[in-house]
Amino acid sequence: MFEKSTWIRLPRNVVVGHGVLESVVEVVDDLHLQGRPLIVTSPTPRSVAGEPIAADFEAAGIDPAIVSIEAATFESVQTVIEAAEAEEVSYLMGVGGGKAIDIAKMASDHLEMGFCSVPTAASHDGIVSNRGSVPDGDTRHSVAAEPPLAVVADTAVLAEAPWELTTAGCADIISNYTAVMDWRLAKRLKNVEYSEYAAALAEMTAEILVDNADLVRPGLEESAWIVTKALVSSGVAMSIAGSSRPASGAEHLFSHQLDRLAPGAALHGHQVGVGSIMTAYLHGGERGFWREIRSALDSIDAPTTARELGIDDETVIEALTTCHEIRDRYTILGDGMDERAAREVATKTGVIE
Ligand SMILES: NC(=O)C1=CN([C@@H]2O[C@H](COP(=O)(O)OP(=O)(O)OC[C@H]3O[C@@H](n4cnc5c(N)ncnc54)[C@H](OP(=O)(O)O)[C@@H]3O)[C@@H](O)[C@H]2O)C=CC1
Ligand SMILES: O=C(CO)COP(=O)(O)O
Ligand SMILES: [Zn+2]
Asked: Which residues are known binding-site members for glycerol?
């Protein structure tokens, strides 16, 4: 008897383009969301988009609540849950980078409330996904969370954000190549659940972005358009898979470990990009695909070395040798790299000197 089933949760409205921030109230109205929103944001995105959105709600006769969080932690999720309960809101709106959006989607999941995603930076592919990624002591959880009902991505806002946030988003997408290699390996060796469609979409997204790398340039709003479409597509791949596997392999474990060892040193996307160079080397050997990953990152001005990340060489080695412990996710790192092997991959790929 055939007993398989799947449940893919995707946004209903994805609105991307110049000036669409002004359409937030209309988008919410189209979803028939009633009552007060809680705008979940962080300091810079609050002034860039949180306050203007709040003003638009007020002009429409709706009184929004607003809460700012500083870090992607379970304490922040709790702060948002308490604010939502105290303010008696009906739905949440994550306005910001990956941090604010992750916290809003996780709090929404707990509160069983709808959630909309308003990115202020094209820096990560959690804009659309139904996952939240949160550190917790020695581990990093990738938890199921509420997917957004709507995404409103204003390319004018995204293009105004610091350029390195956009290159971080590109690198998060380019890392799909190695994430999918790890996923296929885990399917072959450990029989993990695998979706051909999600893997193909994640890879194709990276490929289209790399093919369009010439158009990704600072000061061009079209760059924000190209990168945001890729981030949406990659998030959809995660939602199809029901896990972050299509977009998160060993290069993400490496980045998550760097977050613990050198907090705040570099952006998530930049760290996974550098991780991807090294894990591609492990997948393909010296003459392999890692060179293409490195030149793709180079072509969009993303870091390719520890020095460019602002992280010292020894921290890179420590992260490489310990990051398999971050979570139970089988990757090319297997049950861990020894120090000599880590030094060799980091040196041969030029990540450390
Ligand atoms: N759930 C998922 O599927 C995924 C989740 N992630 C998660 O997302 C996070 C990474 O996202 P990222 O966006 O890099 O991190 P942050 O949300 O920390 O944003 C990075 C920085 O950009 C600033 N910023 C955001 N928007 C603007 C703007 N318009 N102008 C100026 N500065 C701005 C933030 O300011 P401020 O400090 O004021 O907030 C912050 O300093 C990680 O926690 C990662 O795990 C990443 C990919 C997928
Ligand atoms: O960053 C991600 C995809 O780009 C997802 O990270 P996690 O695997 O920690 O959920
Ligand atoms: Zn990522």
From this structure: 125, 172, 252, 268
